[in-house]
Structures
1.
Amino acid sequence: MPLNDSNPTTRGRPKTLGRDHVLKTALMCYWAGSPTDVPISEICDKAGASKPGLYREFGSDDGLKEAVLDVYTEMVSKRRYDILASDQPFDEVLEALITHTIQDRQTAGVPNGCLLFAMRARREEFGPLTARKIDQLRENSLEQYRQWIDRAKTNRQFRSDIPTDVAALYFDAQTGSAMRLQKEGVSNVVIGEILRTAFSALR
């Protein structure tokens, strides 16, 4: 989703905070590093924003992180949801998911790994707004998997002996593991082979 970094001001009034620019800056800081270890002051410095302005806009560090997750969903997660919603055969959707997971992040201009999975792993360290958003996004992701799996079962493209909830959690867990490996610097080619091996038992 394009982010608009410009922020027109009215003559005679103080410059207002560029919300989209701050969100983009915070997202990249959290994604490239650790979402629990990036101080507000660093985001303000990189975004050219003041702490009072940031707190007026987002209410708190917790509010900023919650808003960042909404941006991340639109920028990254939505593409996975679109793939899962496809009417293509199960094997084709599965391969599209793997390709999406192991895409070259450097070419895309984003860090390795997945910000949402990184934040899920440290959920207890966040405030209530961020923790609730993490839970909502996790459940939404699992629901997308469940709907895809149920369609595949209806079309006899997925093993009927595997409960849908179990399969959805399995896909989620394998994707999370792949994102951690990518963050650690493991080759995308290797990660792709790991995923194909892990998912082969489901066909």
2.
Amino acid sequence: MAKIDAFFKLMFEQGASDLHLVSGQQPIVRLHGEMERIKYKVLEGDELKAMLYEIAPEIKIKQFEETGDVDFGYEVPNMARFRANFFNQRNGCAAVFRLIPSKVLSAEDLGLPPILTQSAMYKKGLVLVTGPTGSGKSTTLAAIIDHANKHRHDHIITVEDPIEFVHQSAGCLVNHREIGRHTKSFAAALRGALRQDPDIILVGEMRDLETISLAIEAAATGHLVFGTLHTINAAKTVDRVIEVFPSEEQSQIRNTLASSLKLVVAQNLFKRIDKKGRCAALEIMVCTSAISNLIRDNKTFQIPSIIQTGKKQGMASLDDAIMEQLNKKWISAEEAFDKCVDKAKFLPFLKETPADYFG
């Protein structure tokens, strides 16, 4: 048992989402969204480095020493997997670990709307789950892949950095590939995937032009592709995908995207005030013919109004999703106001107007 595993055990038992180990600081966990110090001595640089190197593969240690940053996955048997990130900072080395539950939560466990499980059964197209870091994108995608794995008889390939949720093959054959260990890059893995007879491809992060281009190509040529982006809403997601391409290619990409995009889910996590834990508010854009036409005609600024009137198709605006959680008294008015789009709509729920609000 590695020395660091004691921290993971504590983290797991408390229900913490993240563990921060920093030279010159006490260990800190993120519990229900809040940072809390662990009653432990201040970590010295050499001690922490030895602790971190004990669990890191040799290739990752080499990469960290060359670049100052590295990501990889680490598993404590019979407990959980952890996504690790090592980095250097002013006082020495540091690391952040995100807990990935060993049990994949189902769509029902998470209370996801039916349109998300329906997306697991699409024959082809592009489905994007977006949101800021730590908003639960991986958990939502894992639930969708889990549904496909249980209800389809196909080949699923996941490409991640690092591998997070591990799916045991059920109805589907599932192959997991990790950047840096099983393949050189997202783009290299996607190029390879097209020759590996996949039906469903999960791209852990669509972070550059080549990866986005290959993902769209795969979706347009008969594969079901799931991916993530760090964007705040559906309209911004479409803009982000298009704007990564050179201006002379954007018209063609708009046409391809309009045909291949099926669903965009923009996700935000909120701290529960009725009990311990967090809950998600989801903006959902279904790529109907009206949405496709807006993408094709470069009128994405009109997407929010289509989402607002598309409830029968399973769509929901972020503000409506936040309002639903607020009306249930699950979340605070202050956090709802902070993360909503239309501030004026949520202003009446606040006890006082924030000093930085000038609406």
3.
Amino acid sequence: MDALTATLALLSVSFYFIAAATVARSLGRRDAIPGARVQMLVVLALLLHGLVLSDMLWRPEGLHVGLFSIAGLHGALLALLALLVNLYRPVHGIYLIATPLAAIELSLGVAGHDPTPPMTAPTPGMELHILLSLLAYSVLSIAALQAILVHWQERALRVHRRGLLMALPALQTMERMLFELIALGFVLLSIAIATGAFLLDDLFAQHVAHKTVLTLMAWLVFAILLLGRHWRGWRGRTAVRFTLTGFLLLLIGFIGSKFVLELVLPRSL
């Protein structure tokens, strides 16, 4: 990776951390969150992040979809979704988690070396499957962060603390947004699974069997949660536990499998 790309990555990481620090400083001083300033910082970080990704993912020899390049792409999607969520309804507290994670993932993408060979001339269907899978994972990542914020907010309300509450809407609004994110992520995950079943010869082949099983388990967890919300009115701690459990299954299946296949197994051979 050339010096220009490394410089752009450094600037992007800096803007992400400045955005998080701006929110944290306002919360610490109990001031109003400068939403427009934070959004501008995130937009600048995303623009630079996108330029770095273009060099990281698309190479003359093909499309790189290894662990580190995917981490860089997921970081961009995470920051973008956090920005879109705040444009829909201000939840500035989510920047405290999303932007540092985006910065860390971009740093991993720049510093890491993907041993996986690039995909030469991937079909449009395969590109769509990869994009849907990443979108589903990213939306459900934001849902997991939202669940953590809901948990913190519930605890703060019980002990009558403020701080983070200043950056959050009412608890009922936070829970409604949580289920909106889960529903969107569930739809994207369902489509990604369906396209994978159509495009891949064998979803339970040896090198993807564990990923398929864990993804289907996560899909089932989110399906049960949405049904429980509809029929039983599940909320609060139950929603948080189901959300984090489902996301953890996705995390292990998606990131854990790539880590083992790309970094652990090659060293043991």
4.
Amino acid sequence: MSDAPIPKSPRTLTSAQRRALRAAGHHLKPVVQVGHAGVSEGVVAATLDALETHELIKVSVSTEAPEDRKQTPRDLADATGSHVAQVIGRTALLYRRRLEDPQVALPGVVDEAPRPVEDA
């Protein structure tokens, strides 16, 4: 990761877009877990990799996480330029459209945040 400023998360998704993402993500299992270290560089890197691979991922927030279960996904979305589509209990659904060959089709236009700059 670079010393570039953390991008701000996109403003919002429409209710139709959230509904489509919830339906698409219902069967998914969490692929990233936020533990006692919180939203660390390692968690952000793992989330970026998972988002690039899958576009839509579930994130599990441990009871030992330093931030609130609702704030942690927002912080992770800010760090990765993704959307928080849903938070249920300690599980969050994050979405970020893939630049090449996007697989998740959403109604309307999705407001995207700047993507983090990765070291070459």
